[in-house]
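Sharing a chain and its predicted structure for anyone who wants a worked example. Both blocks are below, sequence first, tokens second.
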Amino acid sequence: PLAPTPTADTHWAEARINVSRDRAVNVELTFERGLRVSGHLDYLGDAQGPTATELQSRAVLVRPADGNDLGNFPVARIEADGAFQSVGLPAGRYQVGMIPGLGPWRICSVRSGDVDISGKPFSLERDHPDIAIVLSSRKTTINGLVRDESGKAGPALVLVFPRDRSQWAES
């Protein structure tokens, strides 16, 4: 199993400074208590749920949407009952996901209350205790045959996008 997520408060501060040999730099920082993301896993499907050992060997990832690297801090171990809680993180925009490899289980959706935040950043401005990661053991497949104008099957590239354009990722 992964090490338990630390429960002590985390404090953050940030300052941009220029360092040179020619002058001393005084830096004053005001530390803020980090904000936690927590929640639980829900399951859909026919497969038996993961064991406590399987759960505790996987983690929920709370990644900064701006690409900042916070090291291992955004990793929250999943407890035996499916609950998780991050360490305190700086305020900002984040995305929630999981480290793959939980048997047949795949992320079906990530919800914050009644809002689907799957693949979308959310604002972390206060502790966020209501994240539900819904896992499904059902496999999603799309199959078919692509034919040219004469009806002959041939090589093709098929791209699939959500109908709702707001779910398209921006690059």
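Comments welcome. Residues 52-56 form the longest helix (5 residues).
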